[in-house]
Amino acid sequence: MDKTLHIIGGGMAGSEAAWQAANMGVQVVLHEMRPKVETFAHRTGNFGEMVCSNSFRSDDHEQNAVGLLHWEMLQADGLIIKTAHAHRLPAGGALAVDRDPYAQAVTDALNAHPNIRTSFEEITELPDEGHWIIATGPLTSADLGAAIARETGRDALAFFDAIAPIVYAESIDMGQAWKQSRYDKGETEEERTAYINCPMTRDQYEAFIDALLAADKTEFHEGETAGYFDGCLPICNCVVITHLEHCTISSDFKQK
Ligand SMILES: Cc1cc2nc3c(=O)[nH]c(=O)nc-3n(C[C@H](O)[C@H](O)[C@H](O)COP(=O)(O)OP(=O)(O)OC[C@H]3O[C@@H](n4cnc5c(N)ncnc54)[C@H](O)[C@@H]3O)c2cc1C
Fold it and tell me: Which CATH number fits domain 5-152: 3.10.20.740, 3.40.1400.10, 3.40.980.10, 3.50.50.60?
């Protein structure tokens, strides 16, 4: 039997799987449809591209379960996590990443691996022989999605999306806002000032919510459902600091 491992999808999951298997001596073929076939969210043809937020959340392996997972992935020589660390941006205790050089470095590492071959094509059917990992993520192409639905007997597949906002730095009045990391974390001055905090009074905050609710709504993309991940909703990014009298909204992490 052919011992080659085929992986469909060169996102974070597929890239990591390829790296780990190849390091164990397995011959890997990584099948990725980008850049020939685009998704609505990816911007490049790079492997491991981060979609949306550039944060891997907390990197504190002593106090936070996510940070502990980062630590475990580092111990396992994880390609994604060690490349993220190599391209981190100041963000207090969070692991925020300079996304383009990070994805380029993941791509370079996979291309340079002697046990990994890449194949740029869309896989449209579930393979019926050989060893395969399907790592096509939330934006699995329509044909493959339909094949998975047929195989599993499901008439629909869904994922929980996030709608974290991006705030343009020029739109912030730095006469009112200030720079400080969340929970005062960070070893360096750059890290301790990695977030922009925008204070609001209660009235301002309520006016903000009213304006937000009255604003233009985005249209759903094909295949999107209304299941959103609460942890990434804009309003949940508010931190109430004095008994609801004031609250702060942190903008996206610093980008180079
Ligand atoms: C709009 C949006 C916003 C998101 N925001 C966040 C966020 O802020 N934070 C967060 O943690 N997660 C977010 N996610 C989830 C994010 O996609 C995952 O965290 C992460 O990218 C999942 O990695 P993955 O490898 O499973 O999938 P992906 O990174 O999507 O990789 C899957 C790969 O498979 C390829 N592929 C798909 N179908 C085929 C096919 N038939 N043949 C060949 N290749 C194929 C795709 O091109 C892609 O490169 C978001 C997702 C979307 C769509």
Answer: 3.50.50.60
